[in-house]
Amino acid sequence: MPRLRFGIFMAPFHSPVGQDPTSAYERDLDILKLLDKLGYEEAWIGEHHSCGHEIIPDPMIFIAHAANHTRHIKLGTGVVSLPYHNPLWVADRALFLDHLTRGRFMLGLGPGALPTDATMIGIGLEEQRGALEQDTDVLMALLRGETVRAKTARYNLVDARTQLTAYSDFEIAVAAIASPTGPRTAAKNGLGLLSVGATVQGGFDALALHWDVMEQRSAEFGHTASRERWRLVGPMHLAETREQAIEDVRFGLGPWCEYTQDVVAAPHFRAVGKSFEERVSWVNDTGLGVIGTPDDAIAQIERLDKQSGGFGAYLLMHHEWARPDATAKSYELLARYVKPRFQGSADRLRQAEEYGRSRWRELDQRQADAIQAATDRHAKERADAG
Fold first, then answer.
1. Which residues are 77's β-sheet partners?
2. How many whole angstroms separate alpha carbon 41 and alpha carbon 346?
3. CA-derived radius of gyration, the chain
4. pTM for the whole thing?
5. Region of residue 22 (left: phi > 0; alpha: psi -120 to 50; beta: else)
6. N or C: fewer beta carbons within 10 Å in the chain?
7. pLDDT digits 0-9 by tens, 140-161
C-alpha cells in the first residue's frame, strides 16, 4: 500500500463530566505537542456546544493557540459545523488561519454532530445535512474568490467576497459517519473525506457506501475521487501486552461509553454493553478499534486497507480511556512500531542491519586481524627503537 499518514481526530472527549475544563484543555494541548514530537502528520479538532463532554466550542481558536506550541503537525477543524455559521466568516477565518500557520491549516466540514447544538439555535435536525451540501457550495465559491449572492433561512449574502487570498493550497475535507451526505458533498466539490467510526466489519459496510458515493458523484461533477485524501477514523489504545491495554482502559472506557449510550443522541455511533468486558468486546470484536498491542493495530490497519480498497491516512479517535501517562505511551508505541510498518521509514534500516549480519563473520575476523596487525607493528617499532 502507498505510504500511510497518521494523525488524530480530537473531539475532544472529557468523560465523565465534572472535570476542570482548564486542565482538560491543557491535556489536549499536551497531546498535540507530543504528536508533533513523535512525527504524526495531522490533527483534527472538533466543534461542540452542549452535552458537557466535548468541550471545544471553536476549533479555529484552539488551532491558532496550538500552532504556536507545535512546529510540524498540520492542524485541521474536525469539524466546523458549517450550518451553524455564515459561510463568509468561515471562509475568512480559514484563509486567516492558513496565513497564521504558514500552510499548516486544514479545513474540515460537517453538518453538526450533536442534536442539542442544532436545537439550541433553531436548526431542525431534518435540515442539517441538506444545509451542509448547500452551504459547502457557497463556501467553496467564496474560497475561490468569487462574488456570491445567496439567501437561506440562516443567512443572506449580498455581493459577498473574501478579501484574503490563500497562503497555501490547504486541504478541505468533509466528515461522514453513516449517511451519504459527507461523500456527496465532498465528491461534488472535489474535496477529501473523513470517515468517522466507519471501521466496523460485518453487517452494514459504511466504508463501501462512502467510497461508492465518492466515485459515482465525483465522475458526475468532473472530479477524480482521491484515496490519498480519504481518512479513516477509529479508536485505539495500545500497550506492550493486550492484558495491560485492557487494564489501562478501566480508567475511562466506561464513562465514555455511557456518554454515547445515555447523553448524546447519536444512534449511528453508540457503544454496546453495560459491563466493562462487554464494552471491550464491542471495541475489539466488532472491528471498531483496538484495545491491544502494536501488532493488533497493524492487523487492524491491514484489514481496513483490504476492506476499503485503500486510503490515505488513519486518524486515531482521541479519547481518555486511560490515564495521561498510559495514553501518551499508547501514542508512542504506535509511532515507534506501527507507523514505520506503513511508511517504510525503517526499511533501509532493516536492510542495513541485514547487510551487517551477512558480512559479520567475515568482517569481524578481518577487523580483529587488522587490530592485531597494528598492535604487532607498534610493538615491533618499539622493540627496534629500544
1. 45
2. 17
3. 25
4. 0.94
5. alpha
6. C
7. 999 999 999 999 999 999 999 9
